[in-house]
Design brief:
five-stranded mixed β-sheet; TIM Barrel; alpha/beta; Resuscitation-promoting factor rpfb fold; binds zinc ion
């Protein structure tokens, strides 16, 4: 404010913006650098008291997030929000037959209700991940709330499976590509608690995702519900590198079939 005696000092520090510097490729997200403010010296005209120039001593730095896990010619299958009593057992049957490991991210709602399916997934060698307890948007809740969500889910796994998981997938869009500081900030909490955060850049809800999987260049995330599960399995089955060849035994529903036809992955019969 003009005339503020301490104004120049207040302007010396330049807060970092909301942007995020993403580096690397893959779905494993790790915060490499946390935001730091920049500092500058201000040149003030003594007669007018106006700022006439500035010299930066250091620039403000945003979050730097490293992406890891990219591996050419490999597809990682991950499933969120299940288990679904109808589809997850069928998915597990296919994965078992093809000896293809996957990762399942559960929250409390279905993870507790259908815990026998969770136990089966774990027993058959799949990874079990934390997807929070009540599935909130963690960029909109307090850090205490996030910690409670993580802790309760861990206690659920401990009571049901006798394990503690290290994988965490945040609910909602922040897992896709956290592109603002507000979206990255809650991941500081999960990282500080020892979790490895797994993103969701590709989902089977788009033809582009299926085409990308077909080119064998990425991982794929889906949900244990009819529509998405059969898309995923069909996409994986048509991927030449995937171990799940033959997985089309699960017939895609009409919606998925239409999508696969659009992508050229199913005929029009
Ligand atoms: Zn979810």
């Amino acid at each position: 404010m003009p005339g503020d005696a301490g104004g120049a000092d207040k302007l010396r520090s330049v807060p970092p913006g909301q942007d995020v510097d993403m580096e690397g490729q893959g779905e494993i997200l790790r915060i490499e650098e946390r935001p730091t403010p920049g500092t500058r010296d201000l040149i003030i005209d003594p007669t007018t008291n106006l700022i006439t120039d500035e010299n930066f001593q250091s620039l403000p730095e945003p979050y730097r997030v490293g992406r890891y896990g990219y591996s050419p010619n490999k597809v990682a299958l991950t499933f969120d929000d299940g288990p679904d009593p109808t589809w997850t057992p069928k998915i597990l049957d296919v994965l078992k037959r093809e000896q293809a490991p996957a990762a399942f991210f559960h929250d409390r709602t279905t993870g507790d209700k259908f815990s026998s399916i969770v136990e089966r997934a774990y027993r058959e060698g799949h990874e079990i991940g934390n997807h929070t307890f009540t599935h909130p948007d963690i960029s909109n809740v307090s850090s205490t709330y996030v910690k409670v969500e993580l802790n309760l889910t861990e206690r659920l796994f401990a009571s049901r499976l006798g394990i503690r998981t290290v994988l965490f997938r945040p609910p909602y869009s922040i897992d896709e590509e956290p592109d603002t500081a507000d979206q990255v900030r809650p991941l500081e909490i999960t990282q500080d608690q020892g979790f490895t955060t797994v993103g969701t850049k590709l989902t089977p809800a788009t033809g582009a995702a299926i085409r990308t999987v077909r080119r064998n260049r990425s991982s794929l995330t889906c949900w244990d519900t009819c529509r998405h599960a059969c898309q995923t399995i069909s996409a994986a089955a048509t991927s030449s590198c995937c171990m799940m060849a033959g997985a089309t035994a699960l017939k895609p529903c009409g919606h998925c079939r239409e999508l696969l036809m659009v992508c050229g992955l199913a005929d029009s019969r």
